[in-house]
Automatic annotation (TrEMBL):
GO cellular component, one term: outer membrane-bounded periplasmic space
GO BP, one annotated term: nucleotide catabolic process
Recorded family membership: Belongs to the 5'-nucleotidase family.
Taxon lineage: Bacteria, Bacillati, Cyanobacteriota, Cyanophyceae, Oscillatoriophycideae
Keywords recorded for this protein, A-Z: Hydrolase, Nucleotide-binding, Signal
InterPro entries, sorted: 5'-Nucleotdase_C, 5'-Nucleotdase_C_sf, 5_nucleotidase/apyrase, Calcineurin-like_PHP, Metallo-depent_PP-like
Domain 5'-Nucleotidase C-terminal: 319-460
UniProt-recorded name of the protein: 5'-Nucleotidase domain protein
One function term, GO molecular function aspect: nucleotide binding
Domain Calcineurin-like phosphoesterase: 31-238
Length: 500
């Protein structure tokens, strides 16, 4: 449909791009500010990284230079976050804080991430209602296959050029189905995109897919639908830039929690129909001042949330430990394997109860879906890791019951029902279990540290696991799992005498 000139986005320059020195009247410039996977409204890493008030400053500066600036969020913002679990006026915030801040920041468009559907239906509808920005989703619908209220299947923006020209930009939104809720219908990503693009073709000059997909799906999208000019994605949490397909469609993802944002400078020549894209990954650091209005809203919500946590006995700002290694809490990791973070939680459980043989918890209790890089870790970070909390229980159970639980845990791989453990080993055959290097004995009784959620019989395939289960006896309920993890972090990182 048109000719392309997609330039490689360069990562390491900051400031503004100088285009051709002889500006032609037909060149229309559009600036896109992209962020994705934003769970926290304030900055992280001791205030050094991220922070939506800083993004708001960037946005204002870009708008001063080019009024045709649009801010786009490529999914995941309403959940999960520690602040979202804070109970204010008898209800969890559940993303209310995020919508308020994104409104204040001046977000223009967003598509759904998989985590938007962590919310209960009524919470989700309220967030849509509160949003001053436009949600775009081409493939996610309600149970009756209808669009959710105020959600558009695509959006056409008309950008005025000089000399009576206009450039039309078509936006589509695509989301993967990894956290399906019972109130949602997902349509096939590639097929839906193809249909949507066919519809837009001829009506618009530029087609942009705002996606929240796994990278492989974004690549497929770029390869199979050449009409898409630019893919602004999310989900991986680490910045990515790739070019795929015969016409080198760029795929961009910024870092989670606005640790970075992407700025895309588009120049469209209405005469030649050339599109040039120059992209800059911009780290969001304390070098960028806060936008005062947005900062005020951030502070209001943070104060509300922190007050709720203090009422529960937490001191959110307190630094617990300084870690020397990365703690991986990404769902893609913890729902499939153990990481240093899952080991620390399991160890914390062992240390919280007297004479345990092993520890078990569901990986779904880890909600941070992020990596904590080496550095100071606060109580708030622990609330981010385990926002639901809950008691660690000590139970005695027969080996046969334990085996059944562990087997189901493996069947649940890839979901929150995948079990994390301490002192449990899996044999090379992939089905024989060892407890402390001894083959699991179905007749023996084991002392198990287990999180209280698992004892409620609500985990996938584990309805048999309750306090009344035959072969099981509750010995005691110990401390909250968040407190146990804080103690463990202190023990592991604050004392050189302790070896791990
Ligand atoms: Zn995601």
């Amino acid at each position: 449909m048109k000719q392309w000139q997609k330039l490689a986005g360069s990562v390491l320059f900051f400031g503004f791009v100088i285009f051709s020195p002889i500006a032609r009247a037909e060149e229309v410039k559009i600036t896109l500010l992209q962020l994705n996977d934003v769970y926290e409204i304030s900055s992280l890493a001791e205030g050094k990284q991220g922070g939506l008030a800083r993004v708001a400053t960037l946005e204002k500066d870009l708008k001063k230079t080019n009024p045709n600036t649009y801010t786009i969020l490529a999914g995941d913002c309403l959940s999960p976050s520690a602040l979202g679990t804070a109970i204010v006026n008898g209800q969890s915030l559940a993303g209310e804080q995020m919508v308020a801040v994104l409104n204040a920041m001046g977000l223009d468009f967003a598509t759904f991430g998989n985590h938007e559907f962590d919310l209960k239906y009524q919470q989700f509808l309220k967030r849509l209602e509160e949003s001053k920005f436009t949600w775009i989703s081409s493939n996610v619908f309600d149970k009756e296959n209808k669009p959710f209220p105020k959600v558009e299947p695509y959006k056409i923006i008309t950008i005025p050029g000089k000399a009576n020209t206009t450039v039309k930009v078509g936006l589509i939104g695509l989301t993967l189905d990894s956290n399906p809720a019972d109130y949602v219908t997902y349509k096939a990503v590639i097929e839906t995109a193809r249909q949507q693009v066919q519809q837009l073709k001829g009506q618009v000059d530029i087609i942009i897919a705002v996606t929240h997909l796994a990278l492989a799906q974004d690549q497929e999208l770029a390869q199979t639908i050449p009409e898409i000019d630019l893919i602004l994605g999310g989900h991986e949490h680490e910045n990515i830039q790739q070019w795929r397909g015969n016409d080198y469609t760029p795929v961009f993802k910024a870092d989670a929690n606005a640790k970075s944002v992407y700025i895309h400078y588009l120049t469209y020549d209405t005469q030649t129909k050339h599109l040039t894209i120059e992209s800059q990954l911009k780290p969001v650091t304390d070098a960028i001042p806060d936008d005062l209005n947005t900062a005020k809203i951030v502070k209001q919500w943070q104060d509300k949330g922190y007050q709720a946590f203090r009422a529960q006995g937490f001191a959110p700002e307190e630094v617990i430990a300084t870690t020397t290694e990365s703690l991986d809490g990404l769902e893609a990791s913890v729902r499939n394997k153990s990481t240093r973070l899952t080991e620390l939680i399991a160890q914390a459980m062992l240390n919280a109860v007297p004479e345990p043989d092993l520890a078990i918890y569901n990986s779904g209790s880890i909600r941070i879906d992020d990596i904590l890089y080496p550095g100071k870790i606060t109580q708030y970070d622990v609330l981010r890791i385990l926002p639901f909390g809950g008691e660690i229980m000590l139970v005695e159970m027969k080996g046969s019951l334990l085996e059944e639980i562990l087997e189901q845990g493996i069947k649940n791989q890839g979901t929150g029902g995948y079990l994390q453990t301490a002192n449990v080993q899996l044999g090379p055959d992939g089905k024989t279990f060892f407890i402390n290097d001894q083959a699991l004995d179905p007749e023996k009784t084991y002392r198990v540290a287990i999180n209280d959620f698992l004892m409620k019989g609500k985990e996938t395939g584990m309805s048999f696991l309750t306090e009344q289960a035959p072969g099981l006896k509750v010995i005691g309920k110990e401390k909250d799992i968040r407190q146990a993890l804080m103690d463990q972090l202190k023990l592991t990182y604050n004392s050189k005498a302790i070896n791990r």
